[in-house]
């Protein structure tokens, strides 16, 4: 309306001013004056409407915040009800200066006009009410009229809720930050372009870089991931995660190398960060440093498939490689050889020198075996002293023979083990694919059978498998099974062979010998000794024989005071403390004098026993038990041993006895042995006397104790008792 009346007034004013052109002077003077008065009244009305418009601004009572209307100098012109309540302690808000109502902390007015210019120059300034000290936010908004402002509205907002919300948000942010920083896993956040926006301290430690150095760079530049084995790069995983829209995991054996060259094994996953409206904000990667666990897993896997002593593949890994080799050989139609290797007399080396030296020997043998094969071949340790060699892609048996000869030439020989030099050799058995078997089990079984054949035939170092060995292996297994059954059934019985004094023809000693009563047959040790030793059954057989013999001795020794019973002991039995204590206890239990017991030890075992366990001989000597050296002169024992240790007798082996063709030379050899015995004041006994010529020759050389089938074969307990009554001298019987 104001605009319309203003327009009319302007038009009338123009008309009056141009009265000459419109011929208004021809009008009545009264009319002309009235027209001018109307024009002036309209203009005055428009002006007054404008002024009253400026002065009639009313603050709404329903405003949500306290409001003050200020004039240009900062004096309150008007206040709404909320403002009056806010400044309730002030008598009348209108007319008060803004400076009297509020104050700004740590702020000085920048001009003489007071706080108004300061408030206009700040965004959401905080102030304090002077009436009660409440903290508020004062917002000043200028009001413009005709292009210039002449009034201001000051709006007050209570900052308590905002402060509480801000503090809660700050606390939540700190908690979230502390939580993420406390996670033991690495955390990396990226935007939708794969640019890193956040990393936690674990990631900083792995990358050896600070957050400031990482944020803003692309993920692939900071985390160069790759496959540990193939070295294939693993790139663009943030982009892949966003493209697929769900959590994705990295492949196994993922690794990274940081800028310092340090490599870490990691396992991780990428997840998209999704807003409430479903839009993608980026990705988050959570990863673990699994370097130690992966190394441990590799170590455990290596231990599961390799021998801990030599580092060679074990039976499990050999079986796996053998299966794969069989498949490949079948596919490409070629042959390969499986060689089963066993260290000869390793048990003796282990028992004599100790397990430490045995382990050193095995490591040296493993090293020599490995050095003689190609990279495509395999050497595995499958047992205590057993090795298996897999020779791939062979041409024929001639080639295999050449390879084995080369290997055995290197392995067989002298070994220096911590200043101890020993000689070791191996036996080998060979099976060829597919002639000797088409699967791993058959090949190993047949190579093992060939190896045992090589051990039995001592003239050769290795044997190729043939079908006949299967029959021998089955027979051997049956014999071992029969031996175990015989032990359980007490089928081993002692036989006794008299040792005669050639001068008096009287019995001086009885040697206890083992026999196997198998039905109506009586088997000699040569029929079962080898199988019993391989099956480690000789100790049980010996215990059974000695237990029966001691019961018989109780009667004989009580009747014949000077009768001596001789027992054979192996090195394994002598070094078994439990067995020896049990034997001594049995002697005492049967009330037999220790001086009537003699233990025969082979010369080769005496050497090992003196070097490894000399106290055993000393303990036996202290009990009063006699000690005899069996097969004297065969084991090349140092004669100083006979001086250092007390022995009661030596037994001359059958190989030294004279025959009709070599009477003179053999007599000279026996004379030397007999002379040594006489010098040491010990007895000498000739074993294996079979002819009258040998008896006569022994008498001439001075050896009077004779043992052999020419005089008495081994006899049972029933047969020995009457012979003792007849051929024991009257002087040696106990007085009744």
Automatic annotation (TrEMBL):
PROSITE patterns for this protein: EAL, GGDEF, PAS
One Pfam family hit: GGDEF
Membrane-crossing residue ranges in chain numbering: 29-47
Domain named EAL: residues: 476-728
Keywords: Membrane, Transmembrane, Transmembrane helix
InterPro entries listed in its UniProt record: Biofilm_reg_signaling, EAL_dom, EAL_sf, GGDEF_dom, Nucleotide_cyclase, PAS, PAS-like_dom_sf, PAS_4
Top-rank taxon, per record: Bacteria
Annotated GGDEF domain residues: 334-467
UniProt KW Transmembrane keyword: yes
Annotated ranges, domain PAS: 172-245
Keyword Transmembrane: yes
PANTHER family, A to Z: BIOFILM ARCHITECTURE MAINTENANCE PROTEIN MBAA, DIGUANYLATE CYCLASE DGCP
Protein name: GGDEF domain-containing protein
Taxonomic path: Bacteria, Pseudomonadati, Pseudomonadota, Gammaproteobacteria, Alteromonadales
């Amino acid at each position: 309306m104001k605009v319309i009346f203003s327009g009319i007034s302007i038009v009338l004013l123009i008309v009056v001013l141009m009265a000459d052109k419109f011929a208004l002077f021809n009008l009545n003077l009264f009319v002309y004056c009235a027209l001018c008065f109307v024009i002036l009244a309209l203009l005055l009305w428009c002006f007054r409407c404008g002024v009253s418009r400026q002065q009639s601004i009313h603050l709404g009572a329903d405003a949500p915040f306290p409001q003050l209307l200020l004039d240009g100098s900062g004096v309150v012109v008007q206040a709404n009800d909320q403002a009056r309540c806010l400044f309730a302690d002030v008598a009348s808000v209108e007319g008060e200066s803004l400076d009297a109502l509020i104050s700004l902390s740590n702020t000085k007015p920048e001009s003489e006009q007071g706080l108004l210019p300061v408030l206009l120059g700040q965004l959401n300034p905080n102030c304090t009410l002077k009436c009660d000290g409440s903290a508020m936010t004062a917002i000043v908004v200028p009001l413009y009229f005709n292009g210039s402002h002449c009034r201001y509205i000051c709006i007050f907002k209570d900052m308590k809720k905002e402060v509480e919300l801000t503090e809660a948000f700050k606390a939540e942010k700190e908690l979230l930050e502390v939580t993420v920083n406390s996670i033991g896993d690495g955390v990396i956040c990226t935007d939708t372009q794969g640019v890193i926006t956040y990393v936690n301290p674990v990631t900083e430690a792995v990358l050896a870089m600070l957050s400031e150095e990482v944020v803003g760079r692309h993920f692939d530049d900071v985390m160069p991931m790759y496959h540990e084995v193939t070295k294939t790069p693993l790139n663009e995983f943030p982009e892949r995660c966003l493209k697929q829209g769900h959590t994705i995991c990295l492949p196994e054996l993922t690794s990274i190398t940081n800028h310092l060259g340090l490599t870490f094994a990691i396992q991780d996953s990428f997840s998209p960060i999704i807003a409430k409206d479903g839009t993608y904000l980026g990705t988050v990667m959570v990863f673990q440093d699994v370097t130690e666990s992966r190394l441990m897993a590799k170590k455990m896997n290596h231990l599961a498939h390799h021998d801990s002593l030599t580092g060679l593949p074990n039976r499990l890994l050999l079986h796996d490689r053998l299966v794969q080799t069989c498949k490949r050989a079948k596919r490409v139609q070629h042959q390969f050889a499986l060689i089963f290797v066993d260290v000869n007399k390793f048990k003796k080396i282990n028992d004599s020198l100790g397990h430490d030296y045995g382990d050193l020997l095995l490591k040296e043998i493993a090293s020599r075996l490995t050095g003689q094969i190609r990279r495509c071949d395999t050497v595995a340790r499958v047992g205590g002293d057993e090795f298996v060699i897999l020779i791939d892609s062979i041409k024929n048996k001639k080639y295999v023979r050449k390879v084995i000869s080369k290997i055995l030439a290197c392995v067989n020989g002298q070994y220096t083990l911590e200043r101890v030099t020993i000689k070791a050799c191996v036996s080998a058995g060979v099976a060829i694919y597919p002639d000797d078997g088409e699967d791993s089990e058959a090949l190993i079984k047949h190579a093992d059978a060939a190896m045992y054949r090589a051990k039995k035939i001592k003239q050769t170092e290795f044997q190729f498998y043939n079908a006949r060995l299967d029959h021998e292996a089955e027979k051997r297994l049956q014999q071992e099974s029969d031996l175990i059954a015989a032990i359980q059934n007490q089928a081993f019985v002692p036989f006794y062979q008299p040792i005669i004094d050639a001068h008096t023809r009287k019995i001086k000693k009885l040697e206890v010998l083992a026999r196997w009563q198998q039905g109506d047959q009586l088997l000699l040790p040569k029929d079962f000794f080898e199988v019993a030793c391989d099956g480690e059954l000789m100790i049980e057989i010996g215990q059974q024989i000695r237990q029966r013999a001691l019961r018989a001795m109780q009667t004989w020794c009580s009747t014949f005071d000077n009768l001596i019973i001789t027992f054979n002991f192996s090195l394994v039995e002598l070094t078994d403390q439990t067995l020896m204590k049990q034997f001594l206890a049995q002697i005492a239990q049967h009330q037999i004098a220790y001086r009537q017991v003699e233990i025969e030890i082979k010369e080769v075992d005496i050497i090992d026993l003196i070097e490894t366990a000399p106290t055993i001989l000393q303990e036996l000597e202290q009990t009063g038990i006699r000690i005899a050296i069996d097969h004297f002169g065969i084991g090349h024992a140092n004669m100083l041993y006979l001086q250092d240790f007390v022995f009661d007798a030596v037994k001359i082996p059958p190989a030294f006895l004279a025959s009709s063709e070599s009477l003179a030379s053999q007599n000279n050899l026996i004379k030397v042995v007999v002379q040594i015995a006489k010098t040491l004041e010990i007895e000498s006994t000739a074993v294996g006397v079979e002819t009258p010529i040998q008896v006569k020759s022994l008498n001439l050389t001075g050896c009077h104790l004779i043992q052999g089938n020419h005089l008495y074969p081994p006899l049972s307990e029933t047969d020995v008792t009457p012979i003792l009554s007849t051929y024991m001298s009257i002087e040696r019987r106990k007085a009744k």
